[in-house]
Design a protein that fits this description.
alpha/beta, Spore Coat Polysaccharide Biosynthesis Protein SpsA, Chain A, nine-stranded mixed sheet, 294 residues
Length: 294
Amino acid sequence: MKISVLTPTYNRGNLLEKLYNSLVENSNYGVDIEWLIMDDGSTDNTKTIIQEFQKQTEQVEIKYFYQENRGKMVAINNLVESATGDLIVDCDSDDYFTKDAFEIIKKSYEENKEENNIYGLCFLKYDQNGNNMGKKFKNKKTTMFDLYFKEGENGEKSIVFLCKIRKQYYHKLENSEKFVTEARMYHEMDLKYKIICINKPIMVCEYQENGYTKNIQEEFKENPYGYYEYFKEILERDMQGIDFKKRLYVIKHYILFTCLTKAKNSSKKINGKFNKFLYNLLYIPGIIKTKIKF
């Protein structure tokens, strides 16, 4: 079995060693590992550091790619095309794998590979202090949409994709933007497939001050069109069974990005009378709040 690890990176050469060491540590479980790195226009010594990794080990196949700065999502789209593994997992430059991650992945894959209509395995993700970044799974088989909008999840998870399914999808960007939430692609995959959930951690996350999550408001301002499409697509769904707080979250953010993109006739995209009622009720306060905040 072969696993392709995809890492987009920009001026984070100093952070890659932890990830590199975790891959080497996981190379003893009878799994072939290829590490595909997309340098997104870095101006630091990222390339030199990766060349040193390539000299140091034969246990991990390391492939370095370079692109002019086009953002994380384009980097991942391009890396997916080059992946040759049976499984694909994204790992940011500030993340790394637990010491037994690939043993867990291998065992979980063998136990569930006969499941029909799945696109991946979903695992827990821990912070550097050993805390679960979210909740434990309630159901073994679900979708990412149901997990976050019906089952009460609010933290981060790590998905290991089946390569043959993952290669059929890509992150859709709008108006030459550089970022869109990964959830937009997950929800598209959910329409045909499901995920298998395993209550074991395989990845550790260390947030950086210049990371996407730390600067979410700036991401909203710089990439409003992709977020607008994301929330529009949710509101076009049948939202039966969705938690009320989640419903409010979606509608408030839809109004936010309606304002930022100056979208017209946005209420016509909404499915359901109650959702339209909430949208009309919150529209003016939401527009005022957005103009003050942004």
